[in-house]
From TrEMBL:
Protein name: Protein translocase subunit SecY
Organism (species): Mitsuokella multacida DSM 20544
Amino-acid biosynthesis recorded as keyword: no
PANTHER family, alphabetized: SECY/SEC61-ALPHA FAMILY MEMBER
PROSITE patterns reported for this sequence: SECY_2 (PS00756)
GO cellular component terms, semicolon-separated: plasma membrane
Summary of subunit composition and partner proteins: Component of the Sec protein translocase complex. Heterotrimer consisting of SecY, SecE and SecG subunits. The heterotrimers can form oligomers, although 1 heterotrimer is thought to be able to translocate proteins. Interacts with the ribosome. Interacts with SecDF, and other proteins may be involved. Interacts with SecA.
Species lineage: Bacteria, Bacillati, Bacillota, Negativicutes, Selenomonadales
Similarity annotation: Belongs to the SecY/SEC61-alpha family.
Transmembrane intervals: 68-92, 112-136, 142-161, 173-196, 202-224, 259-281, 301-322, 356-377, 383-401
Length: 418
């Protein structure tokens, strides 16, 4: 294994890409410690000590949110902008046309996503500055505007860093920034567990159970994330001139979890909205609704699971174009054995996708409520081992390893994924 890993650094191009990626990680981590001017860090720490409402955002930002640094919003506005643009492809013909224009269309879509990111980041920064007004040393409109511009600039800089990693580094830069933020919280979590053990709050058996559950969940997530339903495809043999084409078999890989982590993000955003609003306004009925939607309450858990299943089907239906798949098969002479081309093929693919999406949605719902189960089984609290974070870390790690593996194999070296 070590010799196989050593093959990575035998390729100058790959070695440079990895070094560049690590330098970008270092810049990201340094930025998480640069505070926003005009904010009282003590007041921010007290706010986070009162509850874990912003725990997920702080995890994705690598602790920058709890420090209220220039990267406090992390890359979240860019992700939201990308999701919005992807969903608008269905209703805006221009965006749909761009998606079919290859590299040129991708450049146009990326440019629109950048502009939308700046708008969303500025709006989110204004909302955060007003909502956290108690932590601002001199909360006048000018200072609030300066803080909002600083936070927006931090997000735009991270967007640029992510694009540079994608272009000159290894893997998807945006995903790797989130990955780095989540992994950066690992030492803090391990330190919290160590202090619990030293204080006698938890036993060594609880720590052992925590480790076993964590390892089992990593294996489970890898198994599901790499799971596909292979639809067999045959191509009719045809003769053009003196050459024969087709006559071979292939398959369509339908992923079990087509939607990734997007349904969890959507569902958590919907349920966090009333709770977030209740933190800053003093309206009795809003407080009552928020109390029922607090993390871990039965109603919140039930709604969370239901919304995740709904958004999994919704996002899969938006992103996976079954009619286009059936038309392309028919155009190139492909067919599913025993299924007629055209609409019967589309109906069959839709039936199969509906069934495997159910399995994927149940998997995502289970991953989402995982922290509650771990806390109940091990009695370890204050350590965020969320299924969302686990899903992101495992997914990004697998994608990055596959990209490195392909570059190693292209240069006739033995790979490391056997």
């Amino acid at each position: 294994m070590l010799s196989a890993l050593g093959n990575i650094f035998k390729i100058p191009e790959l070695r440079q890409k990895i070094i560049f990626t690590l330098i970008m990680f270092a810049i990201f981590r340094m930025g998480t410690h640069i505070p926003v001017p005009g904010v009282d860090p003590t007041a921010i720490e007290k706010l986070f000590a009162n509850g874990n409402l912003f725990g997920l955002l702080d995890l994705f930002s690598g602790g920058a949110f709890s420090k209220f640094s220039i990267f406090a919003m992390s890359i979240t506005p860019y992700i939201n902008a990308a999701i919005i643009i992807q969903l608008l492809n269905v209703v805006i013909p221009t965006l749909e046309q761009w998606s079919k224009e290859g590299e040129e269309g991708h450049k146009k879509t990326t440019q629109v996503t950048r502009y939308l990111t700046v708008v969303l980041a500025f709006l989110q920064a204004i909302g955060m500055s007003i909502g956290l007004k108690a932590a601002i040393l001199n909360p006048n409109p000018v200072n609030i505007l300066i803080i909002a511009i600083t936070l927006t600039a931090g997000t735009v800089f991270l967007m640029w860093v992510g694009e540079q990693i994608t272009a000159q580094g290894v893997g998807n830069g945006i995903s790797l920034i989130i990955f780095a933020g989540i992994v950066a919280a690992l030492p803090k979590n391990l330190g919290t567990i160590y202090h619990y053990v030293q204080a006698g709050t938890i036993s060594y058996f609880s720590v052992f159970m925590f480790g076993v559950i964590a390892l089992a969940m990593v294996v489970f997530v890898i198994h599901v994330e790499t799971g596909f339903r292979r639809i067999p495809i045959s191509y009719a043999k045809r003769v053009v001139g003196q050459r024969a084409y087709g006559g071979h078999s292939s398959h369509i890989p339908l992923k079990v979890n087509q939607a990734g982590v997007i349904p969890i993000i959507f569902a958590s955003s919907v349920l966090m909205f009333p709770v977030t609003v209740a933190q800053f306004i003093d309206v009795p009925w809003v407080k009552t609704v928020a109390s029922y939607l607090e993390w871990g309450k039965p109603l919140q858990t039930a709604l969370y699971v239901g919304l995740i299943i709904f958004f999994t089907y919704f996002y899969t239906a938006v992103t996976v174009k079954i009619p286009d798949m059936a038309d392309n098969l028919k155009k190139y002479g492909g067919f599913i054995p025993g299924i007629r081309p055209g609409k019967p093929t589309a109906d069959y693919l839709d039936h199969v996708l509906t069934r495997i999406t159910l399995a994927g949605s149940v998997f995502l719902a289970f991953i989402a409520v995982l922290p509650n189960m771990i806390a109940a089984a091990t009695h370890i609290e204050g350590v965020y081992f969320g299924g969302t974070a686990l899903l992101i870390v495992v997914g990004v790690a697998l994608q990055t390893m596959k990209q490195i593996e392909s570059m190693v194999v292209m240069r006739h070296y033995e790979g490391f994924m056997k």
